[in-house]
Amino acid sequence: MARFSLLLSDVDNTLFDFRSAERAAYATVSARFALPDEEDVFKLYKAVNTFHWKKLSRGETTAARLRHDRFADFAAAMGLPDADVPEMSALFVRTLELEHTPVEGAEEFLSRVSARMPVCLVTNGFASVQRSRMKLSPLRRYIADVLVSEEFAHAKPDPEMLFAAMERMKISDPARVAMIGDNENTDILAAKNAGVQSILFTNGGPAPAETAATYTAATLADAADWLLKD
Fold first, then answer.
1. Which domain holds residue 30?
2. Residue 13: how many CB atoms within 10 A of its CB?
3. Are residues 89 and 182 in the same domain?
4. Nearest-CA neighbor of 155 among 12, 6, 4?
5. Which secondary structure element, helix H or strand E, spans residue 71, and what is its range?
6. Angle, to 10 degrees, between the axis of helix 85-96 and the axis of helix 18-32?
């Protein structure tokens, strides 16, 4: 009998290559609004964006406010008082909805794991983006359910979505559940808060000196091997 009956998985930079998607979305916005498409400017946007997503994970903002505020703050930092912030935000999101490049090995990983247990996605993000990308992706055939923080009261690291996925899959024993993700402060902490085991996916990067994860995997193949071993 397999050790686990359910896998909960993050989406961005775990299954989908969000780094390239985010860069493409910024390039589209910069072209439309004549912004510099340069790495230092993109890094400024990313810093502002990260600030607001951290606020969301702490329960200090909402998804709707985040959509607006990140571009309002970015425009202010760029010295653009007349920027069309609502359209910048909307264009960025519309572009992201079409970006669904998988992380290397994602389809093989999901094929192996979903043959043994259901896989539910639990993701902090916008519902329109995550659902559109999954609908366009061949990965969708392996997914039992998609839970997006915008549709819940709390984002990860709150365990609300993890508990909801377990309830939907009719699994009550947290020892039978594992969570995989790339972010220590959202995915791994959410797993800890839910009392389930976890895999920190580093995508080829080094393992951190300290982690609350049960296991650290450099590749998705490593993660599948650990999940499926008897």
1. 19-96
2. 18
3. no
4. 12
5. helix 63-77
6. 140
Do 157 and 119 reside in the same domain of the chain? yes
**Residue 92 and residue 105 in one domain:** no
Which residues lie across from 8 on neighbouring strands?
120, 179
197 has which bridge partners?
A: 178
pLDDT one-digit tens code per residue, 105-162:
999 999 999 999 999 999 999 999 999 999 999 999 999 999 999 999 999 999 999 9
Distance from C-alpha of 30 to C-alpha of 39, rounded to nearest angstrom: 12
What SS3 state is found at 215? strand
In this structure, are 91 and 108 located in the same domain? no
Residue whose C-alpha is closest to residue 153's, from 65, 62, 69: 62
Indicate whether 43 and 91 sit together in one domain. Answer: yes
Residue 69 corresponds to which amino acid? D
Task: Identify whether residues 79 and 50 lie together within a single domain.
Answer: yes
Mean pLDDT value across the chain: 96
The gap from C-alpha 24 to its chain's centroid, in whole angstroms, comes to: 17
One DSSP character per residue, 92-137 reads: HHHHHTT--PBPTTHHHHHHHHHTTS-EEEEE-S-HHHHHHHHHHS
Where does the pLDDT of residue 1 fall: very low under 50, low under 70, confident under 90, or very high at 90 and above? low
pLDDT value, residue 230: 80
Task: Kindly state whether residue 33 falls inside one of the protein's structural domains.
Answer: yes
Q: Tell me if 1 is assigned to some domain.
A: no
pTM of the model: 0.93
Query: Is 180 a residue whose pLDDT tops 90?
Result: yes
